[in-house]
Amino acid sequence: MKANKYFFFVLVISFACNSSMDIEGPISAPLELIPEKKFINILYQMQVLEGARTGTTVLGDSILLRNYYGHLYQRMEVTTEQVRNSFSFYHSNPKQMSQYYQWIIDSLRQDVYELNGPRE
After folding, report:
1. Using an 8 Å Cβ cutoff, are 97 and 14 in contact?
2. pLDDT at res. 73
3. What's the CA gap between 39 and 29, in Å, rounded?
4. 28, 85 in Cβ contact below 8 A?
5. How far apart are the first and last CA of the chain?
6. pLDDT band at 70 (very low <50, low <70, confident <90, very high)
7. Nearest Cα to 42, choosing from 87, 108, 102?
8. Between the CA of residue 88 and those of 27, 57, 94, what are the distances in Å?
């Protein structure tokens, strides 16, 4: 069930990005661009957070979702501005972003498979 939720969320985001980015086209790389692999890892972690969220908190926790994002950015040693600028840059290439999201979906599916697999 959660895998379907992840897939649907990523699919909606992909379509939204594709339609808006086709009009604007590629943009220039920001000065502090997050490297591709690190950016994909950040996107993956964001999808995990979004999948666990209920309203403005995560799994009914009293800690706000934005605090989880703040901790993620701190752990990954990036700023909110870097994430926003890198997000805009990478999303200006819809075909490449489609590939990134496919990798993320595959990783989430693998996680679900491993979590639901037999326990030793």
Report:
1. yes
2. 97
3. 13
4. no
5. 23
6. very high
7. 87
8. 8, 25, 11
